[in-house]
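Data card: per-record layout.
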Amino acid sequence: MEKHQIEYANRAIDFVIKRKKVKNVNLHVKPDMTIEVTANDRVPLEFITDFVKSKGSWILKNVGHFKEVQPLKQSEREYVSGETFKYLGKQYRLRVQKTTEEETVKYFRGFIYMYVKDTENRSRKAKLLDEWYREKAQLTFNESLEKMYPLVQKYGVEKPSIDVRLMKARWGSALTEKNMVLLNSELIKAPKYCIDYVVLHELIHFKYNDHSDNFYQMLFSLMPDWEKRKAILDEEVVKDL
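The structure for this 241-residue chain is written out next.
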């Protein structure tokens, strides 16, 4: 495997070449943002570097896409009683309790209770809470979809499915080719009316897959206060993540 680098639009693009018995020169941008070129042994290096340069715009676009959906680094948590965690727009204190029965997380009377066999096992506690958040996210996001979808149904939008993923730089994404709305799992920490805004925003992309005047006209007509909801997400929710 050969490592090389080119410069495109004042950006350095690193890539690796794998020599294989293939007829064509093939270029792949992987989800971890590494760039791989496969080519026959007879293809000159100069030809390959020129080929990569010709694909520079496409490469940067795809690297940018994968960068946006990279797992978000979580702030260091100890997952001990007294720590606060945000859920649907409010802060709740965690109560960790030892159990000999099934390990679980429950929300009750303003507290998040974690029942775990080893109260010192930080990674296990983190996994339990993450699973709880994802379970709540899947349920809440689908409830929001049921609420928001009728607003766009009359415009011929087919009802999409919901998938949940931890993302770095966006709250949601409309995967039109898969008829799916991808939502950031961190969105479960926002108020429900903010979740509704993100879901509607992505649903409108199935009608206008851009941020054109038509897109915003439709958003304003269906949710006149969307800017206030977005401001809460950007100013109040993000800072606590």
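Known properties of this structure: The chain has three domains: 3-69, 83-135, 138-237. The longest helix spans residues 122-153.

See the next section for split statistics.
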